[in-house]
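Repro:
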Amino acid sequence: RKRGRIVLVGVIGLDLQRADFYEKELSFQVSCSYGPGRYDDAYEQKGQDYPLPYVRWTEQRNFEAILRSLADGRLKVQPLITEKVPLAGYEQIYGNMGSSSSIASILVYPGQADPEETTVTLEQRQYDGQPGLLGIIGAGNFTKSTIMPALKPASVAWGGSMTVVSSGLYAALKDHPALEVLDTFDKKISPEAMLERRRQALLVDLFITGTNAVTESGQLVNLDMFGNRIGGITFGPRHVVILVGRNKLVPDLEEAFFRIKNYVAPVNAMRLDKKTPCVKTSFCEECKSPDRICNTWTITEKSYPKGRVKVVLINEELGF
């Protein structure tokens, strides 16, 4: 069409004729792989996100949207798979790419052999123990294998947190035979039963959740719809473990508020299919919708009693 735009995605040969562009006044653009943020060290290495109102689709948000679509079954890639090739026959794919009519080829790996057992003896050293509240570690396995044995909880529950789910901790604990688990993510119970379960979750031995933002000075900033998550952080459960992905780190309170109102809240409203203005505009508009999820703010600066709240800082992009 006249004045149309052509976007190149991927790497292909370019056999362009000037006359085609001249006669219809076409514009041509090369798409950066993955989206805005690619090749930007501040974004990819330091976790400095682009403001949502100005850059709606970044590298990370593109991936999140695709993965959500795959998980929900809205994006179907099965029809694109035209062949499956054993790993040993990889040359069948890569040696014939120029003439192959295949759209998507899948390499099938052989069954994994049992790894050879190896025992490593480390030099024994004596360390003086001391209290601490912050650990920079891997994902949910640390909480399961280290923190929980130390706390010895008989009951566990969680506040709404995609970080807890993404870390693998929710899947590892929800059917734990040695724990009384109050699963507040259970979709099979009624809203009334879920509300009562959230109330009971404030009395467990261990409450696991995430946070919307963490400032460089250590302040936890959160915004809730029901208040059960920030309620559990503030008072009730004997112990609280907060899992924090590196994408939640912000310089100060101003940036924390901005991140929550213009990224966290709109994305969660979209995820939960709420009928709020931010679902359409992608930024906060101080709505009065009955579906509004932004109702109660908290800023947590200290744990009382000391040591009750433990923060696990994870060097991964987790949650929103």
